[in-house]
Amino acid sequence: MSDQDTPHALARAGPTVTRVVEAIAETAPEVRGGLAGRRMYDPEADENPSGERQLAADLYADELLEDRLLAIDGVGGYASEEREELSLADDEGYHVACDPLDGSSNLKSNNAMGTIFGVYDAALPAAGDHLVAAGYVLYGPITTMALAVDGHASEYVVTDGELEPDAVDLTIPDDPVVYGFGGRVPDWTEDFAAYVDAVEDELKLRYGGAMIADVNQVVTYGGVFAYPALESAPKGKLRLVFEGAPIAYVIEAAGGASSNGERSLLDVEADELHQRVPVHVGSAGYIERLERALD
Ligand code: AHM
Ligand code: MG
Known about the structure:
The protein folds into 2 domains: about 5-165, Fructose-1,6-Bisphosphatase, subunit A, domain 1 (Fructose-1,6-Bisphosphatase, Chain A, domain 1, 2-Layer Sandwich); about 180-295, D-Maltodextrin-Binding Protein, domain 2. The chain is about 30% helix and about 25% strand. It has 6 helices and 14 strands. Strands 1, 2, 3, 4, 5, 6, 7, 8 and 9 form a 9-stranded mixed sheet that branches. A 5-stranded mixed sheet has the order 11-10-12-14-13, sandwiched between helices.
């Protein structure tokens, strides 16, 4: 523990959530180590439930996580972006939602990617107010995990599948620096494009095409990330249960804010497991301005 008065995130977790987080950390080197030979589309695979082609690496990471997480006592279900249905171990217990390889299109160009997870105390689909912990592993030059539990966010280095004990407190800095917005510019709504005009005058662009890596820039330097509603896709691209809500949980614990354009992503109803949602997260002032701009 880095500071006795402010326990880091994992120290705030109960026993089952601790096992979930440790299992994801243990799986991280295997996921990373398995990427090199799995950069191609899986010839056997269909599309994922969102209609996207799956890489061999997407399926590999999904199967590893399902095995490890459902083996934990107290985990009742596993759901992922890569599978249509919830996998059930039991009728009771926490349900864990994962995006096993977020930003996997970056694998071809060898850029950063991540694994996102959310631990819900209700059967999925469930809204973000049922999250008891959430986080992400970032496969960058270093493997790190950002974890939020009980309103507190910490970053760990993952070494040989273990979380290094020296956690760094994650608090979004006061003076925002970076922005990154997804979707094709001509496909943005007029109101969002007007907001971007103002943001571009104030912040510098950092966009790499993997939400985890782009959000981690915002957590580190302050600023705003969005994958907004598009003219061609009014609900955007990202999925609420696997991506939007877990990221919002981390960002809000780090002192930032999240929005679907109207309200916190943690307050958006989850009607379907794979439903999409416009995602805007980052420094609170930028999210307030975004909501005013889209009003
Ligand atoms: P994925 O989970 O299938 O990889 O898709 C999500 C990714 C996000 O990481 C990223 O923000 C977005 O898709 C980028 O989309 P695009 O390549 O269409 O700009
Ligand atoms: Mg993703």
